[in-house]
Amino acid sequence: MPPLAIRAYTATSALGRGLQAHADALAASRGGLAPNDFSFAPLACWIGRVAGVEDAPLPPELTEWDCRNNRLAWMALQQDGFADAVRATRERYGAHRVAVLLGTSTASIGATEEGYRRLDNGNMPADLHRPVLHTPHSLAGFVAAAFELEGPCLTVATACSSSAKVFANAERMIRLGLIDAAVVGGTDTLCDSVLFGFNSLELVSPEPCRPFDARRNGISIGEAAGFAIVERIAGVADAPLLIGYGEASDAHHMSTPHPEGLGAELALRDALERAGIEPADVDYINLHGTASQKNDEVEAALVARTFPASTRASSTKGFTGHTLGAAGILEAAITLLAMRDGRVPANLGATQPDPLCGPQMAWHEESKPIRIALSNSFGFGGNNACLAFAHAEHAA
Questions:
Q1: Cα–Cα distance between 275 and 277 in angstroms, integer?
Q2: CATH code at position 382
């Protein structure tokens, strides 16, 4: 596929606000997980919580959209000059030629939970009687309204692959001539439905998660927001590139990947073919690596049988926790930072490597030029996505 430029990008997570906070934490191998202090009855686990969301209401003109999820999105949109970049993109192409394509798995469900806790004679309390909140489309609607964008506005909710798949949606819309640029990304915030839901599946670890460790015992849930602007490379100098993507759905099980990783491998092969590259061309892979038994088992075997030892690979969920619908964009941003800084992130949390892991695994931070990188995002139901990125020089 013709490469697309990533004109701007940003992220907020438990590691901090903005790209530099993430780069500093990754360089120091400093994680952001902490004992759970969220919800009315906190579970005994660790979470990746973003500080200050409760104290950052939206501007008065956006009050009808106010909730934790949209607050976190707004925080991220105000960093790294991203809001100005969105406005400049709107001016360059026109409001109707810029799409808003965002992924989320829970949207503003936290506000809906609060409303049901405080029902007033069976009705939503007055302060939460705002229909725009209680819908899976709340996030994308909010961002489009905040920046007065009039192009296609789409919510992707495919669990943990949501905010990776939006890059694929952007490429198709640009290639078909429907738009000239897209704001892509996603946001997911902590809420009881997620914490207790994953706990009921016996997937939440009582300690910080340990991706690809032989003794791993579950995930740590986090929250994050991230965004990027994707457009044709003409007129965009020295920007990192989206050179390929792959998507697949194995539909093997509601919450367990195919035991041979067939869906994940289809997505990976699709991304490599679309990018026109071979496994040996890949310098780094940001793995999905949730620290659940099955995901890490399948992904470790896939990487070990596909890539040479020179390819480096690691999961960064030990830094941030699993941010669910925001994982795709957060880890895409981390992958782009790894390329920018020539630094492979550590696989934080693992001290006893799973024997299925091959020599590709980077257990500790490494300095290495990264020209081409992949980012894996695998969701429940076997809904898989893989993104391929490259330096601007790759286009030549």
A1: 6
A2: 3.40.47.10
How high is the pLDDT of residue 276? 96
Alpha-carbon 231 to chain mean position? 19
Q: What is the pLDDT of residue 395?
A: 65
Phi first, then psi, for residue 364 (nearest 5°) are -125, 160
Q: Give the mean model confidence (pLDDT) for residues 380-385.
A: 83
Q: Domain count for the chain, please give it.
A: 1
**268: containing domain:** 4-395
Per-residue pLDDT tens digits for 220-232: 999 999 999 999 9
Catalytic residues: 160, 288, 322
Contact 316, 26 (CB under 8 A): yes
Indicate the angle between helix axes 293-306 and 262-275, nearest 10 degrees.
40
pLDDT at 263 over 90: no
Cα–Cα distance for residue pair 263/386, rounded to 1 Å: 11
Whole-angstrom Cα distance, residue 72 to residue 79?
11
- Which residue is listed with tokens 């906070």? 21
Strands (E) in 122-258, as ranges, are 153-156, 181-188, 221-222, 224-232, 241-249
Whether 396 has a pLDDT exceeding 70, the answer reads: no
